[in-house]
Design brief:
This protein is α/β, with parallel strands linked by helices and 320 residues long. The protein is built from 16 helices and 13 strands.
């Protein structure tokens, strides 16, 4: 075990990090070359203990504390790093957390930092949509990582399929006859790069881990395909023909969309942020209209389709 390279995974018990760990452990070649060190807030928690039972070295680490990170990254060859803007909804904090990780990777002479990032929406849209903080802050971290010379590649997750159920983006209409409705502030033709974060993060990151020389300095766009917004209810109806009867896409205006978010308790600034997040996708593209072909060519496992997600999602698995 001692001659294996150390692969450090931040957010080890989270959606992305957990998927990364599972993919590496289940791949004989990756598991033979790397041993995993998972960073979590509390290694004694049941989720962390479950990883320990699989052979993962779980260690505590606080992304707000460089000293704790230095200890956690000691001897690391490759690092997968992810931050969570939505925990505090503070983009300056997320930027600092990312810089902390980058600085410690530099000090530890990490050979490959795989950063979970997103596009700079303010830059992409020439300032038209300047409030998509959870994208921009990650993009600023990516720029910082490159500026200090840490060997890096960027994993860019697409639009989470799980948003459709966890955020009730696809849900029965409150008005009779209560058809399942995908109501969003963009046209039905809007291309959405859907991505199964829990199932597929590991497929992409494992490929980046094992193909370091191919991905260094590049962005890997993690999505199964671009689906038109209007495809969502159609595919749902195909998978769940009884429940999905009459399923529809509806374009709603800005005020209606934001009002639904603030009514659910979201702060006004965050509702504006999510509105801009949705609005820029049609005009400028989630990935700046970048092709997925090269990124998908890196994979040795097929990514999850939207139809497969609808079939397995716990919220809908019992629907016919």
């Amino acid at each position: 075990m001692s001659d294996k390279k150390v692969f450090v995974v931040f957010g080890a018990t989270g959606m992305q990090g957990g998927s990364v760990i599972n993919s590496v452990l289940s791949d004989p070649a990756a598991a033979q070359e790397f041993r995993i060190r998972g960073i979590t807030r509390d290694p004694s928690k049941p989720n962390a203990q479950a990883l320990t039972a699989k052979g993962v070295e779980c260690v505590p680490g606080d992304i707000n504390d460089k000293a704790s990170l230095a200890k956690a990254l000691e001897g690391a060859h490759t690092v997968y790093a992810v931050t969570n803007y939505w925990e505090k909804m503070d983009h300056e904090l997320e930027l600092q957390q990312g810089k902390n990780i980058a600085d410690v990777c530099k000090e530890a002479d990490v050979q490959h930092l795989i950063w979970s990032g997103l596009v700079d929406v303010t830059k992409l849209t020439n300032g038209k949509y300047p409030h998509v903080y959870h994208f921009d802050s990650k993009a600023h971290v990516e720029s910082y990582i490159r500026s200090i010379g840490v060997p890096t590649s960027t994993f860019m997750p697409g639009f989470y399929m799980s948003n459709l159920d966890s955020m009730s983006m696809l849900a029965p209409s409150p008005q009779p006859p209560h058809f399942y409705t995908f109501a969003m502030p963009f046209p039905p033709s809007t291309p959405i790069p859907f991505f199964d974060a829990a199932g597929d993060s590991g497929k992409f990151v494992k490929a980046m881990l094992m193909k370091r020389d191919q991905v260094l300095g590049k962005n890997v766009l993690a999505a199964t395909d671009y689906y038109a917004a209007s495809d969502v209810p159609k595919i749902f109806a195909e998978v769940k023909p009884e429940a999905g009867k009459g399923a529809q896409f509806v374009t709603i205006d800005k005020d209606t969309y934001k009002g639904s978010l603030t009514a659910a308790g979201m702060p006004e600034f965050a509702a504006q942020e999510l509105y801009e997040n949705m609005a820029f996708m049609d005009e400028f593209g989630y990935f700046g209209k970048g092709s997925l072909d090269w990124s998908l060519s890196l994979l040795d496992e097929k990514p999850t389709t939207l139809a497969e997600f609808f079939a397995k999602a716990p919220k809908w698995k019992d629907l016919k």
